[in-house]
Amino acid sequence: MVQGQNIRVLKAIVIIMGVLIVFGLGVLLVAIGRQVSGASAGAGFDPAELKLPAGARVIQIEMEGDRLAVLLDLGDGRQLIQVYDARTGAAQGAVTIQP
């Protein structure tokens, strides 16, 4: 009789663990699906106007997340790396490169 009771407890434990595995797999798949769909959709942003120094010429632009790095030729032999907030167009910082 004790052996039959042990088997029922064991069956219940196995069923509960199986349900937990299926539930965990479902949560994992949903999380992966959200990451993939979020990455492919992109955050997007409204058009923004960037204020460049007078006489500056854009050499290169790089974007990472919400930051936009613009390499500028200032026309006097110096270059400037200007970092902007891509959503607002506000300047966040700059580094001048001397010749």
Which whole number gives the mean pLDDT?
85
Strands across the major sheet, in which order? 1-2-3-4
Share in β-strands: 25-35%
Rg from alpha-carbon coordinates? 28 Å
Beta-strand segment tally: 4
Distance between the termini: 90 Å
- Unreliable spans are none
Number of domains: 2
Characteristics:
2 domains, four-stranded antiparallel beta sheet, rod-shaped, 99 residues, 29% strand, alpha+beta, single chain, 1 helix, 4 strands
How would you sum up this structure, described in words?
The protein is built from one helix and four strands; from the N terminus they run H-E-E-E-E. The protein folds into two domains: 42 residues; 41 residues. A hairpin with a 5-residue loop joins strand 2 and strand 3.
Summarize the structure.
With 99 residues, the protein is an alpha+beta fold. It has one helix at 2-41; strands at 57-64, 67-73, 79-85, 91-97. β2 and β3 (79-85) form a beta hairpin.
List the helices and strands and how they pair.
Blueprint: H1 2-41, E1 57-64, E2 67-73, E3 79-85, E4 91-97
Antiparallel strand pairs: 1-2, 2-3, 3-4
